[in-house]
Amino acid sequence: ENCKPAQVLNFLKWPENHLTANRKLHFSIAKEDDVYFEIDSSTGDLFLSKELDYETASHFLLQIILKDYNNNPPQNNTVFLSIDVEDQNDHSPYFQDDFIVIGIEENVPVGTLVYTFNAKDGDGTFLNSKIQYSLEMSTMGENPFLIHPSYGTLTTALPLDREITRSVTLTVSAADQARNLTDRRFDSLAVKIVVLDINDNSPSFTSVPLSYVMEDVEVGFLAHHLIATDPDEGRNGEVTYHILSGNENKAFALDKITGLLTTSQLLDREIQDCYNLTVMALDDGSPALSTTQLLTIIVLDVNDETPVFLKQLYETAVHENQDPGEFVLKVEAVDRDAGLNSLLRYEILPGTGYENFKINPDSGELLTTASLDRETQDVFSIKGSPSRCSTAQLYLSVLDENDHSPLFAKTQYQISVREDLKEGSAILDLSASDKDDGLSGEVTYSLIDDTFGAFAIDSVTGSIVTTKALDRETKSQYTFRAVASDCSNHLPRSTTVMTVFLQDVNDNVPKFKQSYYKASVWEGQSPKTDIMQVFATDVDSGLNGEIEYSITSGNENGEFLIDSARGILATNTVLDHENTSSYREVAASHHLVLLASDRGTPSLNSTATVLITVLDVNDNPPEFSRSEYHIHVKESIPVGSHVTEVSANDYDAGSNAEITYAIISGNDRGHFHLDGKTGSVDLMKALDYEDTMKFTLIIQAT
């Protein structure tokens, strides 16, 4: 089916047999059969008149009519010719879509059918339309999917886990099975497979299982923050918190959403110094999964207990006249606090005769400091007390007035960013300070100038982010003001000027002003003759926008050179019109493909085609096809008869190749006439063999 029109079907030439030898035959095709074929009426050679398509018609039956003019009247014969069209692989397989997205749950077993691909091929025969499928993964690693080469069924080859691989991008190819490997055609389809989440992960606590809290904290005090994570997605990964046990006296309350554990009543370490709570983190999947943790909360002591003596009244006797330092008794007291708060110090309160005694502040042992005299005083009433001190601190708070404006650290900022930043990228974190307190010192940020939709500022953090893709070639610099304000309506706001310079990225290809150029040059010009200048532009800056020119193809013989900086195309050798008339795309060696490359990294480039016509100079004389013509004629041929025709060729072109013929000798009596344009020789006078047997004509071509 790939035979071109006007091509002779040599294998259908009529044989030289007894039917055709030495006979005058006329061949024709019946009118209803001559759509795709023609036949030479004299030779019987069969031609294609229209290109064939196997898929439209694969068989033809032609009715050939032979008319024999040697019979009188002429005799007609009919021959039927059967022609089978051989199929060529001229149709590529194709998919209905260029890109599809498929979802599959992560818990499906290996071998699960994911999708069935169905590519079509318009060819007519089996191998040319038989499709074989193949699969490629866009990333490195083991492909978790398989495709059946014949049926196009995509199945799982490995277990899937969304928490490891959320999606896989595949390229599915369909190729026909033409017998010749080089004739095979294919098409491809991009497939994104999204692994759908199921609730296959339990929450996991990341917060520590131990917390400390002072016993004197107020109700509602934050005692601990439970944190658990669940790698599942959506509701499967949403975690709530619950107390399962250990909180029977309702000492704590747990926010099930935030995981904040707070006190719900006053604590007393002396009653209970430790709580062991069993807490649970529960996700919202179906069925829900959970995990538990034993959370230990230790209540820390506060010095809130007063020491108490073991006896309210101590009675004892001591001998008089003993030396000082005599042991009298030991008093004891206890304190329910713990640690340092339970360490006691003893002292004697001032009273009558107290100067005669001393007490060890640590042990509570009472000793005499003087020799006692019963006659002088016989009874001593002494009061002792372990110390329980408390201190108070006075905190004087000055109530705030909003009397300060926010201030930026700098009045202007200049930064440079790459133009290929992704949308949403932070370029700078602005910070303004306000000496006021509370709401009066809370700063909000805003932009008051047009950023052409390129930037926005977080009103709370002051972070400036991009809001669209940047392009230095569209706009290379942005200047705008950022404002810091507090809640005041009468104080001035603080402003800073932002200047953002975009750094160039080599993202623009050099472009020729034309994709196709035509030029001409006279043959025979000396080397280094300028032919033309081409121009390419690159809107990038610096090295990214500097262009170098070169010739990539069509100059295999080195006939041309190009100035790499200026793009001037010139000859490198002396050109000859007769050897090469044009450098164009039809022949690979006869056209020039120019390359314009920038100096960026990586370098970008584009091409343009130049058709160069070598103009002719009249540097070739005409040449006869033969140096001598020998013609034999009968003396009886009538005047006006055509005798012969001479022909000369000139390798030049145009008017330089137009030839004029003339007889310059041998026709003195005017027997012959030569057509100066066609070279046709005709008889002008009757010939007489007995008068002249031979004429020698000298013919000139100019």
UniProtKB/TrEMBL annotation:
SUPFAM superfamilies: Cadherin-like. Pfam families: Cadherin (PF00028). GO terms for cellular component: cell-cell junction; plasma membrane. It comes from the Eukaryota. One of its GO terms (molecular function) is calcium ion binding. One of its GO terms (biological process) is homophilic cell adhesion via plasma membrane adhesion molecules. This is PCD23 protein. It is found in: Membrane. Keywords: Calcium, Cell adhesion, Disulfide bond, EGF-like domain, Glycoprotein, Membrane, Repeat, Signal, Transmembrane, Transmembrane helix. Residues 1-95, 104-205, 213-309, 310-408, 409-512, 513-624, 625-702 form the Cadherin domain.
